Amino acid sequence: MSRLQAKRGKFVWYDDSLPFEERVEALIKAMTVKEKVGQLLHDAPAVERLGIPAYNYWSECLHGVARAGMATVFPQAIGMAATFDTDLQYRMGCAIAVEARAKNAAARRFSGDGSTPIYRGLTFWTPNINIFRDPRWGRGQETFGEDPYLTGEFGAAMVRGLQGDDPKYLKLAACAKHFWGHSGPEAERHRFDAKIGKRDATQTYLPAFKKLVTEAKVESVMGAYNRTNGQVCCGSAKYIRELLRKKWGFKGHFVSDCWAIMDFHQTHKVTPDQTASAAYALKNGCNLNCGCSYEKLLDAYKKKMITDADLDDALRHVLMTRMKLGCFDRDELVPLAKTPISKVHCAEHRAIALEAARKSVILLKNDGILPLKPTAKLNLAGPNLTSLTALWGNYNGFSDHMVTVLEGIAANADPATSFEPRKGVPLDGPAVDLSKQIWLYDKKYPVVAVVGFDESIEGEESDSTERNTIALPDSQRSMLDFLYREGFKVVLVVMAGCPVDLGKDVKKASAIVYASYPGEAGGTAIGEVLFGKTCPSGHLPFTIPRDPAKLPDYHDYSMANRTYRYAKSNILFPFGFGLSYTEFRYSGVRLAGSLAKKGRVTVSANVTNVGERAGDEVVQLYISHTKPGVEAPLVELKGFRRIHLEAGETARVAIEVPADEFRLVDAQGRWFMPKDDVEIFFGHDSRTLASKVLTLKLA
């Protein structure tokens, strides 16, 4: 036992028989101003005289514990959204919580004094619930797509999985980010001012944040780098104190994005210097600083720019989170606190990763070539064929079970099939002349071409990932054009975290499979789909445009002509789209309930698998206002359910829609119930009817 640990018994804040609030107040009262300032930094130092070990708040778990060595690597967030399976997302969150607790226990043990280093803490800066409003945004891969309803459902499921449901303790502290209006342009985020109208704010950009705060009870919210409507997001009393805390009742702590407070004076020019920036952020509600700005709070205090009350208010929120995590209690009392390291990347978690990868794979086109039949030879090509980086996306951990697409094909192909893999071209670069490589391929057999991006092409902040196009790099396009020109049957496998320009490929490829960044089991899942051992069942969480040149200005945050909810045209593959190896039909659709009497309606239908093999269907419920009277979405997702049906099996599926889901937003950003008729239907996607249209009168 260290000297620091030995001191704990005499301090009130370590008395686990007392309420958290009382213990927090006692600790705050015991601290000096300098000690208080230190505890508001993301790398909070130890306070030895008070028995407090060092604690670093910075940890990541976007799709598995990240930046901390071995971990189960699940599909990237955009791939999880493609599963349309919130229960799976919840189970993934639960698995991450177990692995994070195991790593934290080991880290505290190794430290000798209970301190927690970076990436080994219990405060995790995920999920990213920004709206993927523009396909050129490199961080869209971190989100749950373009729809606020889907984003809210998946974000809430992730938070519940990470935080748990113990009445006293949190498994982990999740974080809703980036609040708010952060959806690119990435290269300009430190100086950009996102201009967002009141209607778009209320109807598109804020609903997921509200859901995570008011329903999922997320413990932390992270501010964005940018300004939104002139307000610096990491230091806006209007957004933090008024909206988050007063209107939505947020009880947790607010944290800045990393070094974002430095932007206040360096790029946003709302303050003159670092000391003023730190004081501005603290007084306006930012409790914790990722970065170095709050080191200047001591200077701000001496200059009377902040008060004891300002420091204490921030400390209450920050220290309460650590209390809820059990950081001041005996491990015996805290769920998962003694999780053994053997739970990291255990068989149970690897099985969830494989299930998620299987459910995330989307079939966009199939002329009948898939599933691939046993054949003497298979041509394999493309830069992502053997790529590991295309499996894990960004904000990732590492696993010793990473299965590339090549390995997945080898494991699932008929043992008699021969193939000689050829990358053909680099991931990125100029066009390549492949005419001299024609002898490498046999035209009698199909080519599985594995293309797409990785974090070096789409990602966070750097100029190299700020894309003006969603086209494949010239190197890859030249390879595909060569294969089409030579008459090969091409099965195109796209690994990316965003919509990709497939206008030419949808005409010339025999099949197109979209696989996102599918995690450690991605190669297995792709191989199974290609050879028919898994029936594809993923659905697009975004729209793939027909002509990327017709996209709205990237800097324009208006939702006009963006996403399936507002775009009247320019759609190649709509939101919710996904083919299968079987077919599902809907019948007997009914509407029951009353908005006036029960506050909700229930829409149900018989769903029958009329194909010859088992498969999963994602039942999607959409609504459309006939005469909204205000600017309104053309169509909106309001419910979904994933079901498994054997060949010939029928299930009755019911989806409940609360009255609030029929509301619209006026020009002042206020919700109201219109008096028009609403059309309700089940869709195979956001543009294709699966059932007859029902009409609900709201008047």
Structural description of this entry:
This protein is of the alpha/beta class and 699 residues long. The protein folds into three domains: 3-343, Glycoside hydrolase, family 3, N-terminal domain (TIM Barrel, Alpha-Beta Barrel), CATH 3.20.20.300; 353-555, Rossmann fold (3-Layer(aba) Sandwich); 584-697, Sandwich (Immunoglobulin-like), CATH 2.60.40.10. The protein is 27% helix and 17% strand. It contains 20 helices and 24 strands. The strands form eight sheets. A five-stranded mixed beta sheet has the order 9-13-12-11-10. Strands 19-18-23-24 form a four-stranded antiparallel beta sheet, with no helix packed on it. A three-stranded parallel beta sheet has the order 3-5-8. A hairpin with a 5-residue loop joins strand 16 (584-594) and strand 17 (600-609). Helix 6 runs parallel beside helix 8 (207-214). The longest helix has 26 residues, at 86-111. The radius of gyration is 26 Å and the shape is globular. The protein starts with a helix and ends with a strand. 55% of the residues are buried. The model has no long low-confidence stretch (mean pLDDT 96).
Topology:
Blueprint: H1 3-6, H2 20-30, H3 33-38, E1 43-44, E2 55-56, H4 77-82, H5 86-111, H6 148-163, E3 175-179, E4 193-194, H7 198-205, H8 207-214, E5 220-223, E6 227-228, E7 231-232, H9 237-247, E8 253-255, H10 263-266, H11 274-283, H12 297-302, H13 308-324, H14 347-360, E9 362-366, E10 379-381, H15 389-392, H16 405-412, E11 447-452, H17 474-485, E12 490-495, H18 505-508, E13 511-514, H19 522-530, E14 544-545, H20 563-566, E15 571-573, E16 584-594, E17 600-609, E18 615-625, E19 636-645, E20 650-658, E21 664-665, E22 671-672, E23 677-683, E24 694-697
Helix pairs in contact: 2-13, 5-6, 5-14, 6-8, 14-19, 16-19
